[in-house]
Amino acid sequence: MSLEAHLQQAVLLKKVVDAIKDLCKDVNFDCSEKGLQVQSMDSSHVALVSLLLRESAFSEFKCERPTSLGMNVDSLSKILKMCSPSDTLKIRWQGGADTVSFQCEGGEDRIADFDLKLMQIESEHMEIPEQHYKVVARLPSSEFQRICRDLREFGETMQVKASKEGITFSVQGDMGAGNVLLKPREADKLEDKVSLTVHEPVTATFALRYLVNFSKAAPLCGSVELGLGPDAPLLVKYDLENSDNGHMQFYLAPKIDE
Amino acid sequence: MSLEAHLQQAVLLKKVVDAIKDLCKDVNFDCSEKGLQVQSMDSSHVALVSLLLRESAFSEFKCERPTSLGMNVDSLSKILKMCSPSDTLKIRWQGGADTVSFQCEGGEDRIADFDLKLMQIESEHMEIPEQHYKVVARLPSSEFQRICRDLREFGETMQVKASKEGITFSVQGDMGAGNVLLKPREADKLEDKVSLTVHEPVTATFALRYLVNFSKAAPLCGSVELGLGPDAPLLVKYDLENSDNGHMQFYLAPKIDE
Amino acid sequence: MSLEAHLQQAVLLKKVVDAIKDLCKDVNFDCSEKGLQVQSMDSSHVALVSLLLRESAFSEFKCERPTSLGMNVDSLSKILKMCSPSDTLKIRWQGGADTVSFQCEGGEDRIADFDLKLMQIESEHMEIPEQHYKVVARLPSSEFQRICRDLREFGETMQVKASKEGITFSVQGDMGAGNVLLKPREADKLEDKVSLTVHEPVTATFALRYLVNFSKAAPLCGSVELGLGPDAPLLVKYDLENSDNGHMQFYLAPKIDE
């Protein structure tokens, strides 16, 4: 057995897959003793998706030697729809096999399994250089999703402007111009907080259609982290419940005004 | 500042706009010291929409001189989707400006605003003569909506027949003929009541597609008032929560049988 | 009056009609002193639908002499949408009339009625021979619906394999191969149980699109019964709440492998 990975809750992988479903068609799951990793450009080769599921996220994890398993994201999503939220999930791959097996159990008397055909996907390994962001903002992930969706109605492009006073999301279009301003906000629950770490104020502009897709990862984590720098790609990051277990990251290059 | 109007609950304007969204494309908001008013034919020039938001509906209202602000209803609806149900709304227009500003606040740490471009809309001011209806019926607005929707499945035209005994909504079509009869009904809550004030029994016929659209205003008020007269337009009226604050009225000419 | 049938709850007929709506276009309701019966091939002449509503299902039932009333299922569904879940329903047909009347009452102050035009439908009376199934399986109807829907995503055909150990539903397609295994399961509520009566293990293959449609009858009954035999049609059976009152049965011929 070259890979054996058990998740206590199948729903974790389900949320991960749903989060990238509208961005990527086929992806490589890079397996190593450290866990599972996906790095992929979105279908239009503009945004970068980076998932890390550390071995600690699994109740059992064994990977004999590093390997890349290419899967169709849509198929994966259909397989995971067979799992109930509380089901456990076992992923198994025998070295050399052309299928990977997903087995999902809810109690002892219901077992659903699927042998998914693997694909050869050309993998362009990307080195993501560690960034030192001028601004790191943390806000409720549902709020971020709502802002992206609301502003998407008015235009294609969103300007983000962050300073110590707050973070403003702006749009301009045929109907007029709109802004949503969030000020830093204390709260009991981490996911209700708005916090800003500002080394230098930043203003940058991004394509809304990607942000709308990134923000669909909201079910993964109550809060989202945005990393901003001048002329740097935007980082949109969701921790997996326990941040030690990994994260889902999206990167998007800024739009440069002519 | 030529207009400054604050609503305690943005949701009121949201419901109003949703109620006319499927009928009118662009409308003039006529502002005066009395409040805001919309009078508009529907896009097919068959039905008449008449909205009155009295200044008492606003927590603050100032209008220096009467003016007409032309807006696209769909844009307005998108702007108001940015407001949460409990948000406050501030509408501002500076004399002469070509945009009107909507600012929606939920607490102090989230402010969404939008500057909507104004439009020139030819306004045909209509005098709606005070009618003395032969029948005034009051019924639950959700019931009215359901009847219109259900009967719409069977035909294009609805006959309304009202007497002291009750009000009957009828339809005829290829599948057959159907009726819904409501009898006067006492109830604790006003919105559950069915009451009929009948000076003279009335029978009249109307195009269902408009009634279905009117009845979408149900979220504005738990009960709806129908005014009927022989050969007179039908009145469909929704009070704004507190009826002193205004109302939403629809008028529809009857169909004359040949 | 040739037929007078009263149902305490209109919703029973509503569920029945919804269950056959996607299978049959026009059907004959065969009325006799025993109750109402529908036997019809589905529109593609592959599956057989058999409904029995015994006279005991009605609070009042009178049928002077056997007759067949041909109705359009879609129209019937629209009429029954006029009924609230707790409404009573009265079905009336006067011998020789070309319409059948449905009257649905919720309390005394709301009466909806519809005179549905009858149709002449060529009725091919089918004798369904009593089958002695090698396997009779009983499982939660919602579970059966979910399995059919989930597997439908992967292929056109489902293999059912039943033995004393359990029942396995399998599919094969371009993405790979999947199975759902249910083992016998005790439970307090009948509708949570999985039970298998096995005279001889059976393996048979069926077209999933019909099974998906059959399984929509789930609201009729918490559990569903499957009858299987080698080379025999599959029986999918839903009792009406009280099984003495009748049942809804679907039959589907197996796919023969070449």
Automatic annotation (TrEMBL), chains A, B, C:
Transmembrane segments: none
Domain spans labelled Proliferating cell nuclear antigen PCNA C-terminal: 128-255
Keywords for the protein's UniProt record, in alphabetical order: DNA replication, DNA-binding, Nucleus
Presence of keyword DNA-binding: yes
Any single GO CC term annotated in Swiss-Prot or TrEMBL for this entry: PCNA complex
Places the protein is found: Nucleus
GO molecular function: DNA binding; DNA polymerase processivity factor activity
Residue stretches making up the Proliferating cell nuclear antigen PCNA N-terminal domain: 3-123
Keyword Electron transport listed: no
Pfam families xrefs: PCNA_C, PCNA_N
GO biological process: leading strand elongation; mismatch repair; regulation of DNA replication; translesion synthesis
InterPro entries: DNA_clamp_sf, Pr_cel_nuc_antig, Pr_cel_nuc_antig_C, Pr_cel_nuc_antig_CS, Pr_cel_nuc_antig_N
Function comment: This protein is an auxiliary protein of DNA polymerase delta and is involved in the control of eukaryotic DNA replication by increasing the polymerase's processivity during elongation of the leading strand.
PANTHER family xref list: PROLIFERATING CELL NUCLEAR ANTIGEN (PTHR11352:SF0)
Family named by the database record: Belongs to the PCNA family.
Stated name of the protein: DNA sliding clamp PCNA
Organism classification: Eukaryota, Sar, Alveolata, Dinophyceae, Peridiniales
Underlying gene: PCNA
